[in-house]
Amino acid sequence: MLFSYKAIDQTNVKREGTVEAANIDAAIATVQKRGYTVISIDPVEEKDDLLNFEITWFQRISNKEVVILSRQLATLFDAQVSALRIFRLLGTEAENPQMQKVLNDIADDLQAGSSISRSLAAHPDVFSDFYINMIRAGEESGSLEQSFGYLADYLDRTYQIVTKAKNALVYPAFVVGVFVLVMGLMLTMVIPRISQILIDSGQELPVYTKIVIAISTVLTDYIGIILALASIGGVFLWRFLKTPVGQRAFDELKITIPYIGDLFQKLYLARICDNLATMLQSGISMVQALEVTAEVVDNAVFKEILQNTLVEVKGGRSFADSIAEYPEIPGVLSQMAKVGEETGNLSEIMKTLATFYVREVNNAVDTLIGLIEPVMIVLLGVGVGTLLASVLMPIYNMTASI
């Protein structure tokens, strides 16, 4: 819940701002931790109107901004600049008002004596559990600048690979969208006028022409019902995918679709290996690394695998033997992990595997992009050719018989 406060600091300077807290008592405690004396504090009424939604959407903090911020933090911490000064400086220079607010709130918490990890944890919509655990490990080991360096490199790799995978799907989605739109306009606006001429001619129409006319008639006569049913179906599907069962089914579908599933599977394996490598290199235990990785893997199937593996590792079983039981985990991963555990070099093995799977994802994306264009050309050609042939052939026959 968001609270707006007015307070004075230790130098009797008036301060105003907002804090996120579960209730008003927690909000007062948060403001007091910053060294302020509370004058007034009230809950902020959250507006649900469209304008407020649009403003929040355009001011939200993107993954790219978090990547850039992490790189700046790594550089400044490496230069031995104090944490408070770093967040004050970056908060002043931030272009996104939302990012500016977050960094200033973190600086206020640091000034009040809070640790960096606890200050970051107050903004879970910006900093993930993985991010916070990495920083907490850096604080405990006294290598905070190294942790920010690991984070900057990790987030940069993750951002690049996810962005490349998403961009590979933009072109086919655009082409398919335009194709569906054009075909819809043809079937609802052009074909009905031509079909009446063909029917009135009295000639025997080809089967494919009858099919096209039938589709056009259904779309024209029942377009309202079709759109309503599609909208209702879309809402039910969206709500189903928000449930644990629906999310699990969708995530399982993503990794089992031919070819595309292989791409998604390698993407998640790259994320798992990279997360584990980064956390293990920072001195985080395998148990904690598995807990965090399970939460940030972003796939219900692999999350379940990691949670089951976590239970077995807590019970004394090795990581390699635990993951070897699951068909979604390639044999090379479990075998390499076993070698890493035996040699005490598991973090480096995970790093090597992460590099391998990232390269595999890049190759799969490049291959997909190379296949998309010819496949799209063939499909579009067949679709448009069938539509035109179903109209032009009867017209040609009718003209030839005159």
Automatic annotation (TrEMBL):
<feature type="transmembrane region" description="Helical">
    <location>
        <begin position="375"/>
        <end position="396"/>
    </location>
</feature>
<keyword id="KW-0997">Cell inner membrane</keyword>
<feature type="domain" description="Type II secretion system protein GspF">
    <location>
        <begin position="70"/>
        <end position="192"/>
    </location>
</feature>
<dbReference type="GO" id="GO:0005886">
    <property type="term" value="C:plasma membrane"/>
</dbReference>
<dbReference type="InterPro" id="IPR003004">
    <property type="entry name" value="GspF/PilC"/>
</dbReference>
<keyword id="KW-1133">Transmembrane helix</keyword>
<comment type="similarity">
    <text>Belongs to the GSP F family.</text>
</comment>
<feature type="transmembrane region" description="Helical">
    <location>
        <begin position="169"/>
        <end position="191"/>
    </location>
</feature>
<keyword id="KW-0472">Membrane</keyword>
<keyword id="KW-1003">Cell membrane</keyword>
<feature type="transmembrane region" description="Helical">
    <location>
        <begin position="211"/>
        <end position="238"/>
    </location>
</feature>
<dbReference type="InterPro" id="IPR042094">
    <property type="entry name" value="T2SS_GspF_sf"/>
</dbReference>
<protein>
    <recommendedName>
        <fullName>Type II secretion system protein GspF domain-containing protein</fullName>
    </recommendedName>
</protein>
<feature type="domain" description="Type II secretion system protein GspF">
    <location>
        <begin position="273"/>
        <end position="394"/>
    </location>
</feature>
<keyword id="KW-0812">Transmembrane</keyword>
<dbReference type="Pfam" id="PF00482">
    <property type="entry name" value="T2SSF"/>
</dbReference>
<dbReference type="InterPro" id="IPR018076">
    <property type="entry name" value="T2SS_GspF_dom"/>
</dbReference>
